[in-house]
């Protein structure tokens, strides 16, 4: 089955700097890659996603890139702010035959923005 | 939020007792999922459903069972709770366009 590896497990950056989180996946048939942000005690919330027919997607200060050949994708946060501090999860979904769509998550990255 | 609610929000139970967690959705989504979240492991899939009475196992299904007798409800049962099942449990739905939305979670403590 699918396996998603996420690095680093913790990341600390100065406010205003950029942060990059990287994930690799094992199943070349995976075609959907979302990123979730989880604040302490809250539910994971989708912040951006990308599909396998697209190489890059951007939404204000957040961008995701996908390299299908290398089977890795990355989250980029620019001009970081204190409210970006949270745990971030990457995930991958393989579009199986009807009825078997499921999301596999990476282990998470705890991002801390230092003022 | 996105019409998905979990109950209870918190529960403490004793080892060996059965426990049922409920996930309820109001938007008629076909796909529903149960994940558990533990430090260092991210979110791991327990069971999922792709329709009424259609369910399948995830990566950590041992000790858990599920049922979906109607579209809006997906139940997770721990037949005989163990301390290793102390965790935060999240239900999720898969909306059209691939987006998954999570419930608020249930914090379960087995003592």
Please describe what this structure looks like:
The complex is a heterodimer of chains A (115) and B (111). Chain A is mostly beta strands. Chain A has no helices and eleven strands. Chain A starts with a strand and ends with a strand. With 111 residues, chain B is an all-beta fold. Helix content of chain B is 0%, strand content 59%. Chain B is built from no helices and eleven strands. In chain B, the strands form two sheets. In chain B, strands 2, 4, 5, 6, 9, 10 and 11 form a seven-stranded mixed sheet that branches. A four-stranded antiparallel sheet of chain B has the order 1-3-8-7, with no helix packed on it. In chain B, a hairpin with a 5-residue loop joins β9 and β10. Chain B is globular and about 40 Å long. The chains are: A mainly beta (115), B mainly beta (111). At the A-B interface, β5, β9 and β10 of A face β4, β5, β9 and β10 of B.
């Amino acid at each position: 089955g699918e396996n998603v590896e996420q690095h680093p497990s913790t990341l600390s950056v100065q406010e205003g700097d950029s942060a990059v989180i990287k994930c690799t996946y094992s199943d070349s048939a995976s075609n959907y890659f979302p990123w979730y942000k989880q604040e302490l005690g809250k539910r994971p919330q989708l912040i951006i996603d990308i599909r396998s027919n697209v190489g890059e997607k951007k939404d204000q200060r957040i961008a995701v890139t996908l390299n299908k050949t290398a089977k890795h994708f990355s989250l980029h946060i620019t001009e970081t702010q204190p409210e970006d501090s949270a745990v971030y999860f990457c995930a991958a979904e393989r579009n199986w035959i009807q009825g078997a769509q499921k999301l596999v998550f990476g282990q998470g990255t705890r991002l801390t923005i230092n003022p | 939020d996105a019409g998905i609610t979990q109950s209870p929000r918190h529960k403490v139970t004793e080892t060996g007792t059965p426990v049922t967690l409920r996930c309820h959705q109001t938007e008629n989504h076909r796909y529903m999922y149960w994940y558990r979240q533990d430090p260092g492991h991210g979110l791991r899939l327990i069971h999922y459903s792709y329709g009424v009475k259609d369910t399948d196992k995830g990566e950590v299904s041992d000790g858990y069972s599920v049922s979906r007798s109607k579209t809006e409800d997906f139940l997770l049962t721990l037949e005989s709770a163990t301390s290793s099942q102390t965790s935060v449990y999240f239900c999720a739905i898969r909306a059209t366009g691939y987006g998954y939305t999570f419930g608020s979670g249930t914090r379960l403590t087995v003592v």
